[in-house]
Fold this protein.
Amino acid sequence: MNVIRIATEYDRDVWKALRGIVYDGCPEAVHEEDINIWLRDSDKVCFLIEENSKVAGFLEASLRNVVDGCLSSPVGYMEGVCFFPEYRSHGLSKQLMEAAMQWMKDQGCTEMGSDAELHNAEAIKFHQANDFKETFRVVQFMKKFN
């Protein structure tokens, strides 16, 4: 039996391990600070799914005011989803997405957005397999002010 629950402070190590897979190359200090933000911000939630009492994966969800391709506000946003390799192709992602979508609906959302990097074919396939419709392809830029 699978259990879906919201991550807490006590899940920090497994949460960081999953973030390390999906956000490859991101420094551990960034994961630490991001987890601190997720734990204190009511517009963010991290769902964990357990299979046989072991954490198999996570889905980080948030609320955003504006999402390209969506017409409503707030919009639920799937920020990141990842499973440990041994739990992939077990049908767990649909269960996690259902939990996230219910949370989003409870927050007044009628749409959900997400993204994938242009070179990440696996993530694009994941979104397509989960009934996401592609809206745009962009390269985003930023500039810091002096």
Remarks:
- The chain has four helices and five strands.
- The two ends are 54 Å apart (CA to CA).
